[in-house]
Design brief:
globular; 9-stranded mixed beta sheet; binds flavin-adenine dinucleotide; 11 helices; 8-stranded mixed beta sheet; FAD/NAD(P)-binding domain
């Protein structure tokens, strides 16, 4: 059977994949998006999105507030010894579940003519200036461009022999939605030994509780409940939130092997977007912003290439790699440094005391890990 032909094939339908699919279809390109999971689906994520993405989402025809997203303008941080810092967020953000946001963007993508296939990509080959893409259910496709938007860890990272996949990563993430009392306009980060828990509200009034911790801290306990009881609840604010709310999930969602290793924005001529290109520490609450921003960077250059304004693939790849580094490498470095410093249990309370003395530093630090509003 002849392989079906597309201008662009996008592997992975999270935020990076969906936004680039919508963007490219708006310029009338034939786009295929392949996502291995069904929509809608919950994902382990803090679900706080920086407002820097709003102008671009508007350009794509998506207004999160129309679907009940909560506007967030205040930030709170508590430490192990229950010290608290409050600050105004420089740009603010919104709270929306990935269940809803990805689902609405998926529906928008379809309405704009994107072809969406539920399947898992198992191989991509580049030959004679064309890509050949193969899926688990034995379907074959061809395209001029492939965008890799398959997230932080995928079977394709193994297939492409990417460097980071060979290293073990000690981080795991846990998320649940609960109902209870929590201000709509606040995102909070609560520290516990070995990790952080983000708290904010999403569109249906549920509170998202999402924490990241290192496996060393976690493995001493037999299950999530005992870990929470013995470690997480040492932070009295977290204990109060967990104990005074009603769980909305049958079981918490978990992921492991979260890696913050450096990746390449171009791999085997594939243009990597979102977490596939590099992941910022969730402590910074900007991974989704970066995924959406990288979709914009990639789509703009791909359009120029497909319309002949960028004359060679070599130049396309060079421009994207350069723009990606210019836009994200500083944020990533700062994000990793902040996460490293706050991981030092002896240092974190001291840093917090310093921030309480100099509260104007908090918005400045937040600014360094976020971008400016994205011009569409
Ligand atoms: C604990 C935790 C908390 C976080 N909190 C926040 C936060 O509050 N704010 C924030 O901005 N960011 C946060 N992030 C980061 C954010 O979740 C990610 O940066 C964002 O989801 C990246 O989007 P993406 O589109 O690159 O990847 P994803 O959303 O992961 O999408 C990738 C998609 O690719 C699909 N896929 C993978 N392999 C294949 C294949 N072979 N074939 C087909 N499909 C495939 C997957 O099913 C998936 O749907 C957090 C991350 C973690 C781990």
């Amino acid at each position: 059977m002849e392989a079906q032909n597309f201008d662009v094939i996008i592997i992975g339908g999270g935020l990076a994949g969906l936004c680039s699919a919508i963007h490219l279809s708006q310029s009338s390109f034939k786009v295929l998006l392949i996502e291995k999971n069904e929509y809608p689906k919950h994902k382990v994520c803090g679900e706080y999105v920086s407002n820097e993405v709003l102008p671009y989402l508007d350009f794509l025809g998506f207004d999160p507030l129309e679907f009940g997203a909560k506007s967030i303008s205040n930030f709170e941080l508590t430490t192990l010894n229950n010290k608290k810092i409050k600050a105004k967020l420089p740009l603010g953000g919104f709270g929306m579940s990935r269940y809803e946001m990805d689902f609405q963007l998926y529906k928008l993508a379809i309405s704009k003519g994107v072809e969406v296939l539920k399947d898992s990509v198992i191989d991509v080959n580049f030959e004679a200036d064309n890509f050949k893409v193969e899926t688990k259910s034995n379907k074959k496709f061809q395209s001029k461009i492939v965008i890799g938007a398959f997230g932080k860890r995928s079977n394709l990272d193994v297939q492409f022999n990417r460097k980071f996949i060979k290293k073990k990563s000690p981080y795991l993430g846990v998320k649940i939605h609960v109902s209870g009392k929590f201000p709509e306009d606040k995102v909070a980060l609560h520290n516990f030994k070995g990790g952080y828990c983000g708290v904010s509200k999403v569109e249906n009034n549920h509170i998202n509780l999402c924490y990241i911790t290192d496996f060393e801290s976690f493995k001493k306990y037999k299950d999530i409940e005992s870990f929470q009881e013995e470690v997480v609840f040492k932070n009295s604010t977290l204990k109060e939130i967990f104990n005074n709310s009603e769980i909305q999930f049958e079981n918490p969602l978990t992921i492991s092997q979260i890696s913050f290793e450096t990746k390449q924005p171009i791999e085997n001529h594939i243009i990597m977007c979102g977490d596939s290109a590099g992941m910022i520490h969730p402590l910074c609450g900007n991974g989704m912003g970066m995924a959406i921003r990288s979709a914009q960077l990639a789509s703009e250059l791909i359009i120029d290439y497909l319309q002949g304004k960028i004359e060679s693939r070599e130049k396309l790849e060079k421009y994207y790699a350069k723009r990606w580094q210019q836009t994200f490498s500083f944020r990533l470095k700062i994000g990793h440094t902040i996460a490293y410093l706050f991981r030092q249990n002896w240092l974190a309370p001291k840093l917090l005391i310093m921030l309480r003395w100099f509260p104007f530093l908090v918005p400045l630090i937040i600014k360094t890990t976020h971008g400016k509003p994205m011009k569409a």
